[in-house]
Design brief:
Helix 5 links the parallel strand 2 (101-105) and strand 3. The radius of gyration is 27 Å and the shape is globular. The longest helix is centred in the first third of the chain and has 26 residues, at 45-70. The chain is α/β, with parallel strands linked by helices. The protein has eight helices and six strands, in the order ααααββαβαβαββα. Helix 1 (2-13) packs antiparallel against helix 2 (24-32). The chain has helices at residues 2-13, 24-32, 40-43, 45-70, 111-127, 142-151, 165-170, 198-205, and strands spanning 88-89, 101-105, 133-138, 157-160, 177-181, 187-191.
């Protein structure tokens, strides 16, 4: 059969140890099946794959920007005074009076929150000796948070706010969301924790 013979020729010409590897299949097949000549992917596999890679990269970039855009609040907290933090700390409560505070809203089920933890650990290691206090607040139960922290430790101060009072106070609609207050307790910055710059932290430490 002609079709069978064509397939045999294709297999012979498309061994993976050839100079073009799997891409050889496209060019070899087009010789025996003319309809493939009208397919841009068959004629230009490298070009098509390059375009596909650009599409994927663009999608990833847009997803990253979207995740940051979603970490927001309904109203701005900048200029407000940081309220008393009526939360339950999982360990020793930090001393916050007269110190700048970075308050972060997070949850164990939130992938961007988990991604932010190593970054916040680094900020804690770098700036806590100079006075910065980082507090990670979640509405989840202790029974959920403690096992999570065994797998992904927080070097800063994790805390529980089961009723979500702080979320409501600041109008937080998506997480992770962070708020930075200076030594006087005035909020000077808010946004995605990964967007916080070291220079902004140094400014509140002065």
């Amino acid at each position: 059969m002609k079709g069978k013979g064509a397939l045999v020729r294709i297999v012979k010409r498309t061994r993976s140890d050839g100079p073009l590897g799997p891409f050889a299949m496209c060019s070899a097949a087009s010789e025996d099946f003319p309809f493939m000549n009208s397919n841009p992917f068959m004629l230009h596999p490298l070009r098509a794959l390059t375009r596909l890679a650009l599409v994927v990269a663009t999608a990833c970039t847009l997803f990253g920007l979207a995740s940051k855009a979603l970490a927001k609040a309904e109203k701005t907290a900048v200029g407000q005074a940081l309220p008393p933090l009526a939360v339950e700390y999982l360990a020793t409560a930090p001393q916050t009076e007269g110190k700048p505070v970075l308050l972060e809203f997070w949850a164990t089920w939130c992938p961007p929150c988990r991604k932010s933890i190593p970054h916040l650990n680094t900020l804690h290691e770098q700036f806590h000796p100079q006075g910065l206090v980082i507090i990670g607040v979640t509405k989840e139960k202790r029974s959920v948070v403690e096992p999570f922290l065994e797998q992904m430790p927080m070097q800063y101060f994790p805390a529980l706010d089961p009723k979500g009072e702080l979320n409501r106070h600041f109008g937080v609609t998506a997480i992770p969301h962070a708020i930075l207050a200076d030594k006087r307790g005035t909020i000077v910055w808010e946004g995605h924790p990964m967007s916080l710059k070291a220079s902004q932290i140094r400014a509140v430490l002065e």
